[in-house]
Design brief:
Layout (H helix, E strand, L loop, with lengths): L11 H12 L6 H15 L22 E9 L5 E11 L2 E6 L11 E7 L4 E9 L2 E9 L1 E5 L2 E4 L2 E5 L3 E8 L5 E8 L7 E5 L3
Antiparallel strand pairs: 1-2, 1-9, 2-3, 3-4, 4-5, 5-6, 7-8, 8-9, 10-11, 11-12
Length: about 200
């Protein structure tokens, strides 16, 4: 009598009891048959499915990145670092970042990066160039938020400039509206200096 099903082995006590009873011409008692059936069912049953984990929190909303930002990581040419300011207009999913302070690779007034940035999209193009050919190309990039006041993009760390806000008051020579900025010297004094975007 074969007492193995697939590769599952019955307990030795059940095998011995069954062998003795069958060898002696007796029939396997109901209790022993029940134990065998129960053992087989336990050994061949599918393992219990593991519970699935559900996130308990949802991602925080993407902040409005409109404002004046600064980075000390711009390089032009490579290895020569510049501290530059940019103005960002972030409306719905659309984001446009334009240089306030420029360099020979991407001058002031040019768009430094633009594209879609929201909870569902993170697809932008960054303007690149060389001193002989400024703003001559674009590369795909993504924003990596650190918090509401800082982010990384293409190896550049940007920090929001406190007290600065962006307006769209000046029409440029190319017909585009060019951001101007107003920087408050102090939160309580109310004094400020206004100046147009360079370029």
């Amino acid at each position: 009598m074969r007492l193995m099903k697939s590769h599952k082995v019955l307990p030795l006590s059940v095998i011995v009891l069954t062998f003795i009873l069958v060898a002696c011409g007796g029939e396997v008692p109901t209790a022993a048959r029940f134990e065998i059936a129960q053992t087989l069912a336990t050994r061949t049953a599918e393992p219990t499915a593991r519970p699935t984990l559900t996130p308990t929190s949802t991602p925080s909303p993407v902040p409005d990145l409109s404002g004046i930002w600064e980075s000390s990581d711009y390089q032009c040419p490579f290895g020569t670092f510049h501290t530059e300011q940019i103005s960002i207009i972030h409306t719905n999913n659309n984001l446009v970042a334009r240089k306030i302070t420029g360099d020979p690779c991407v001058p002031a007034g040019d768009i430094t990066f633009e594209g879609s940035f929201s909870e569902d999209t993170n697809s932008l193009l960054m303007t690149v160039g060389l001193p002989p050919e400024p703003s001559s190309g674009k590369i795909p990039v993504q924003i990596s938020l650190i918090d509401h006041n800082s982010f990384h993009i293409n190896g550049l760390l940007f920090v929001r400039q406190a007290g600065a806000k962006v307006n769209l008051d000046i029409i440029g020579s190319n017909g585009e509206r060019t951001p101007t900025y107003y920087h408050h010297w102090g939160a309580s004094s109310g004094s400020h200096i206004a100046g147009p975007t360079e370029g």
